[in-house]
Amino acid sequence: MTSNIIQLKNPRTELYNEFKSEIKSLDFNWNYYPGSDEKSTPAMLSHCFIKRPAELRYPTVLCDGANFVHDVVREILNHNDIKLHCIYRLNLNMVFPQAGNQQTPVHVDHPWPHDNIIIYFSNEGKTILENDEHDPKEDDVIIFPGLPHCQELPKNDMRLVLVATCLTDKL
Question: CB under 8 Å to 138, separation ≥6 — which residues?
Answer without folding.
Answer: 120, 121, 122, 123
